[in-house]
Amino acid sequence: MSFKLKCNLCETEAGYLTAFRGKTYYHCHNCQSVFMDPAGHLTCDAEKIRYDQHNNDVNDPGYQKFVKPLVEKVKTECNQNDKGLDYGAGPGPVAAVLLEESGYKKIKKYDPFYWPDHGVLQEKYNFIICCEVIEHFRSPSKNFSFLRSLLLPGGSLYCMTVLYDESIDFNSWYYKNDPTHVFFYHRKTLELIKRHFNFKDLLIENRLICLKL
Question: All domains of the chain, ordered by start, with CATH?
Fold first, then answer.
């Protein structure tokens, strides 16, 4: 086991943090992210099995309530004629469904397992939503660069994830227990993403994150 590893986002050397259930985690002292050693990443088949176990029923009131902050933010800032992409939509794309029910009819869905239409990734969008998706990014630098390239001028990227901070005891933190969660963001991580990918604005409201061009 190495006690140092290059950060998947900023490529700075990160130090060993801890090990949990056979997986090793590193802390980047530059962008303050925490990430799993790629040696611990699940195979694609195992990852799909894990996603199949998620309770993502679009008609579940609890799930609808969970994504409501993201949906309401889009409704506040985007008009119904804007083109949107639900990236990493999963088996139950509740955010896209709720927006469609609110009159947003130009929303496409993409997910490598459940909505694998690569044609939608050839288009440009006014807004992109990533609801509980970015913590699954194995190559966040490439992923954010790609998402940035899909946005039209003035576009917005809306994400939901749980942020890591210094008050959290990582060893007992529930959010790392999902083996498909491989990259964890600090506020400083998001500030670096804003600068590095030339977003003009960053808004953080609990687990809701908005990056705007």
Answer: 4-212 (3.40.50)
